Amino acid sequence: MTPVTAPPPPIPYLPQRGERYRIVAPNTPTAPKIVRDFVATVLWASGHPRLVDDARLCVSEVVSNAYCHTRTPQVRVEVTVNQRQVTVYVTDDEPGHLPTPPPPRVPGPEADADEGGRGLVLVDGLAARWGTTAHGGRSPHSKTVWFTLAAEC
Fold first, then answer.
1. 87 - beta bridge partners?
2. Tally of CB atoms within 10 A around 54
3. CA-atom Rg of the chain in angstroms
4. pLDDT in tens, 18-62
5. Rounded distance, CA 87 to CA 140, Å?
6. Which of 28, 54, 66 is CA-nearest to residue 145?
7. How far is Cα 106 from Cα 10, in angstroms, rounded to an integer?
8. 108 in the Ramachandran plot: left (φ > 0), alpha (ψ -120 to 50) or beta?
9. CA–CA separation, 97 and 1 (whole Å)
């Protein structure tokens, strides 16, 4: 039997320096596409074309999670871009469901048949870092799921 280790817990929310771009999308089935296209446009315009595919996949998964697991009326997205990295922050108004690091997946027929639950596994595999933050102290009012993609220098 192969030993399995759990990934380390996500590091805390890290505001980054750089140019910032924001969009607010309704939390509807079309939100992932709206945000995906916005992030892709920002990355193309800011000179990070190699990060577009990974960013589109990661942001689509995080926004889809907000749609599937919350009743927040809107999703707020901020993209911070600098020469070394791109960080995407996705904020919703339901802090109760904080994503945690994905458990290791055991390959096999059952895992292959499982259609859901791969979003954070993908984010964990593609992002240099990712994490979550609840906002509002002891009585949180919102949460942010963020991820950073490193630019190739």
1. 80, 148
2. 19
3. 16
4. 899 999 999 999 999 999 999 999 999 999 999 999 999 999 999
5. 23
6. 66
7. 21
8. left
9. 33
Q: How far apart are CA 134 and CA 79, in angstroms?
A: 18
CB atoms near residue 118 (< 10 Å): 14
Tokens matching residue 16: 């980054």
Q: For the residues of 24-45, what is the DSSP string, one character each?
A: EEESSTTHHHHHHHHHHHHHHH
Residue reference for tokens 């771009």: 21
Rounded to whole angstroms, what are the CA distances from 29 to 38, 40, 64, 88? Answer: 16, 19, 8, 20
Distance between CA atoms of 52 and 114, rounded to whole angstroms? 27
Q: CB of 102 within 8 A of CB of 121? A: yes
Q: What is the pLDDT of residues 82-115, one digit of tens each?
A: 999 999 999 998 766 555 555 544 445 554 444 5
Distances in Å between the alpha carbon of 122 and those of 20, 97, 129, 147? 24, 19, 12, 11
The C-alpha torsion from 40 through 89 and 23 to 20, rounded to 10°, is: -80
